[in-house]
Amino acid sequence: MRRVLAIMGSPRKGDTWHLTQRIEAEMKLLGDVQFDYLWLRDADLATCRGCCACFLGGEERCPLDDDRAEIEGRILSANGVIFASPVYALGMTALMKNLLDRFAYALHRPRFFEQKALIVVSAGAAGVKMTQDALASVRYMGFDLSPGRVGLAMLPKPWTRAEERQVEVRTRNAARRLFRAMERKTRPAPSFMETCYFRVQQAAFQANREEQPADYEYFAERGWFNPARKWYVDVPVNPLYDLIARGAASAVRRQVVARQRALSAEAGEK
Ligand SMILES: Cc1cc2nc3c(=O)[nH]c(=O)nc-3n(C[C@H](O)[C@H](O)[C@H](O)COP(=O)(O)O)c2cc1C
């Protein structure tokens, strides 16, 4: 059974819900799909306090005792994840941003490699692309964003037939892309930025073993420090991207080492 988790960033059942429900209906025409909705407005997910305990010591050190771990489990057991948010002040809603903040540790320790993600954004007029781009940061948590995005300025009803048709076509296409992506066992090669992100993390976390033990252990356990490893999971990587990424990683490594030397020399002077 294919499972989709729709994460709803709006505080109401309005336009993004309408779009997501249309996607659900279209996907169900294509095959067996189970839809589960996570309404962030109802979730027990407190606002990040900024202590950075999750980055440094591991997410289990987060002082907030709420549904964060359960939500992570729900995401991991889905094959497809929809991030649905209206545009608020030219960005995603605070509810959705808080979800990303609370899962920011997954940007250090990516894990959602099996999940195909679709971004759904609705607006009154402006800010769809900015919001979609900000939501696309989930790619660095491991999500496969090949299903792409759907974004619409939703005019007040009643809609003209052309407007109605536009919503139909866009949601149907998005549903097909997500469905097909969920059928695929493989994932596309990482982009240039994704390739650089891996190599830079590899260099930075190895050099910062003392300062970032949780990141170090996570990478070490998975064999991700092996220089022959080109990305988190075994996918073909563009050799030119990898060459440039290794150059960027070397620069980061030199910078970290130079900083550590400067700090120990300054400590010795005292
Ligand atoms: C606080 C707030 C801020 C908004 N800011 C924008 C904005 O910057 N750009 C825009 O086009 N629409 C903006 N809107 C309109 C919503 O994005 C739009 O109505 C959206 O379709 C609502 O989705 P929903 O019904 O799922 O909540 C805003 C709405 C609210 C309530």
CATH architecture descriptor text of the largest domain: 3-Layer(aba) Sandwich
Overall helicity:
40-55%
- Distinct small molecules bound, one entry per kind: flavin mononucleotide
Q: Report low-confidence residues grouped into runs of 5 or more.
A: none
Shape verdict: globular
Query: Domains counted in the coordinates: how many?
Result: 2
Task: Give an overview in words.
By secondary structure, this protein is of the alpha/beta class. About 50% of the residues lie in helices and about 15% in strands. The protein folds into 2 domains: about 1-185, Rossmann fold; about 190-270, no CATH class. Strands 2-1-3-4-5 form a 5-stranded parallel β-sheet, with helices on both faces. The mean pLDDT is about 95. The chain binds flavin mononucleotide.
